[in-house]
Amino acid sequence: MIERNLMEHMTETSGWRDLSPAAQVFGEGNSIFFNTGDWRSETPSWNRERCKQCLLCFPVCPDSSIPVSGGKRHDFDFEHCKGCGVCAKTCPFGAISMFLGTAPAGASDAAIAGGARAAAAANTNHAADKTSAAPAAARAKGGAK
């Protein structure tokens, strides 16, 4: 784990001369020092029962907000997750859902999961509407019966 903030000299009063040339990054791993999770407009929810621990979500997270240890992923690091949804799109098992909003401070995992279940149900109902309409449209055109 990174123990030193590589941008410790940067403050809100730092000027353009304090930046590295072309704003290049000369050190890695300093995002751990900046809690940017409150930028989220959507929040992921992890369903442990659906998760197969394939770890496909872990490498695509641009904020390293999916902790892994012992070959298994753990719940999200909400202090750093920006809610981009890449993990949810990547998961082939539907174990990650996104819901609108950020989890309030001190919210329980159950409350977060409840919001995600509601969002997932809305998405499922929307998809069901599309799939049930398709056969009817085909019948109307004289197609499948």
Summarize this entry quickly.
With 145 residues, the protein is of the alpha+beta class. The chain has helices spanning 86-90, 109-140; strands at residues 42-46, 68-69, 72-73, 96-100. It has a single domain (30-140), classed as 2-Layer Sandwich (Alpha-Beta Plaits), CATH 3.30.70.
Write the layout of secondary structure elements.
Elements: E1 42-46, E2 68-69, E3 72-73, H1 86-90, E4 96-100, H2 109-140
Antiparallel strand pairs: 1-4, 2-3
The helix fraction, in percent, is: 25-40%
What's the Cα radius of gyration? 21 Å
Q: Indicate the mean pLDDT.
A: 73
CATH topology (fold) name: Alpha-Beta Plaits
- Please indicate the count of domains: 1
Structural class: alpha+beta
Strand order of the largest sheet: 1-4
Could you name the CATH class? Alpha Beta
> Termini distance?
61 Å
* Morphology: elongated
The counted number of beta strands is 4
What percentage of the residues does DSSP assign to strands (E)? 5-15%
Oligomer: single chain
Low-confidence stretches: 113-120, 122-140
Number of discrete helical segments: 2
Q: What CATH architecture do you see?
A: 2-Layer Sandwich
Q: Could you give the order of the helices and strands?
A: EEEHEH
Q: How is the main sheet built?
A: 2 strands, antiparallel
